């Protein structure tokens, strides 16, 4: 197993609401892109064995050149395990000619009820060597903050 990056936070929403946001196309386009990026889903098949393709575009690529082109990261995500309100496993492959981004990175989104909310832990395994650890963990934390803002506004 290669490098492992992690981030987590408690979100003031139910596990059901958080899980729903992990498997809804419009929700993912809204909250998944970290700060400084916007995202667009090109293909969508939300079932085990299915997945999606997301194009992430840097708002200012000057300091963060993309993995796929100067301003974009294109990633194909395959869904592994989908356990309602508990866990989503994604397998990510970056579209890149650079071997530093090659391979399959597994992203596990673990959900656990915690008080009136949900503890969400994201574990990325086999992170490609070209992805800076600090930047990656900051990006995951940013996506988690976006997820929290998104679902906390919609949870009952």
In short:
The protein has about 160 residues and is of the alpha+beta class.
Structure description:
The chain has 156 residues and is α+β, with helices and mostly antiparallel strands. It has a domain of 104 residues: START domain (Alpha-D-Glucose-1,6-Bisphosphate, Chain A, domain 4, 2-Layer Sandwich). Helices cover 22% and strands 41% of the residues. It has 3 helices and 7 strands. Strands 1-7-6-5-4-3-2 form a 7-stranded antiparallel sheet, covered by helices on one side. The protein is globular, with a radius of gyration of 15 Å. It starts with a strand and ends with a helix. The model has no long low-confidence stretch (mean pLDDT 93).
Strand and helix layout:
Elements lengths: L3 E8 L3 H8 L2 H7 L5 E9 L5 E8 L13 E12 L3 E8 L10 E10 L2 E9 L7 H20 L4
Antiparallel strand pairs: 1-7, 2-3, 3-4, 4-5, 5-6, 6-7
Family: Belongs to the AHA1 family.
Organism: Streptomyces phaeolivaceus
Protein name: SRPBCC family protein
Structural class: alpha+beta
Any idea what the CATH superfamily of one domain is called? START domain
Q: Fill in the CATH topology of one domain.
A: Alpha-D-Glucose-1,6-Bisphosphate, Chain A, domain 4
The number of strands is 7
Q: How would a crystallographer describe the biggest sheet? A: 7 strands, antiparallel
Oligomer: single chain
Regarding CATH, which class of one domain?
A: Alpha Beta
- Overall geometric form: globular
- Can you write the helix and strand succession as a string? EHHEEEEEEH
User: Count the helices. How many?
Assistant: 3
Rg estimate, integer Å: 15 Å
Strand order of the largest sheet: 1-7-6-5-4-3-2
What is the residue-averaged pLDDT? 93
Tell me the span between the first and last alpha carbons.
Answer: 40 Å
Name the poorly predicted regions: none
Percent strand equals 35-45%
**CATH architecture of one domain, please?**
2-Layer Sandwich
Percent helix among the residues?
A: 10-25%
Organism: Streptomyces phaeolivaceus
Family: Belongs to the AHA1 family.
Pfam families: AHSA1
Protein name: SRPBCC family protein
């Amino acid at each position: 197993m290669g490098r492992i990056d992690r981030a987590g936070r408690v979100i003031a929403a139910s596990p059901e609401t958080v899980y729903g946001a992990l498997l809804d196309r419009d929700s993912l386009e809204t909250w998944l892109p970290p700060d400084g990026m916007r995202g667009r889903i090109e293909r969508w098949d939300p079932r085990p064995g299915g997945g999606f393709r997301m194009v992430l575009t840097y708002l200012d690529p000057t300091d963060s050149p993309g993995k796929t082109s100067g301003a974009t990261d294109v990633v194909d995500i395959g869904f592994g395990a989908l356990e309602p309100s508990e866990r989503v496993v994604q397998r990510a492959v970056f579209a890149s000619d650079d071997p530093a981004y090659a391979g399959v990175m597994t992203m596990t989104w673990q959900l656990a009820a915690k008080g009136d909310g949900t503890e969400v832990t994201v574990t990325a395994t086999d992170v490609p060597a070209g992805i800076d650890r600090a930047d990656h963990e900051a990006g995951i934390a940013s996506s988690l903050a976006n997820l929290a803002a998104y679902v906390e506004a919609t949870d009952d």
